[in-house]
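hi got a favour to ask and not much time before my train. below you get a single protein, a line of residues and a line of whole numbers that encode the local backbone shape. could you go over both lines and see whether the tokens make sense for that sequence. a few lines back from you is plenty, here it is:
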Amino acid sequence: MRYDKKVYFQKITPGEYDPATGNYGEDEVTETLRFASVVNTGTDMMQLVYGQLRQDSLTIQIQNHYNEPFDRIRYGDKTYSVDRASNLRLKQVFVVSEVQ
């Protein structure tokens, strides 16, 4: 298994409220790079997690554990929300689905 794909763990900080204009500022997104093994989620795992088959579901596996708080994961140009996370002894596995 190769851990050669770049995935980014994103932490989103909401923009501050500006009482002068009544608007909120832009959200700030902080990304942390990790290398991972990324594959399409198998049909058995989709049935277990979602109860149905879904498109745009990936299984991301990283070496070691990522313990920092994060909101979503970016892979390529798409962002994904974590539907299931498993901490193994030396690895961490995420089953993710695309955020629209």
The mean pLDDT is 89. Strands lie at 5-13, 17-18, 23-24, 28-40, 57-63, 72-75, 78-87, 91-98. The CA atoms of residues 17 and 23 lie 6 Å apart. The first strand starts at residue 5 and ends at 13.
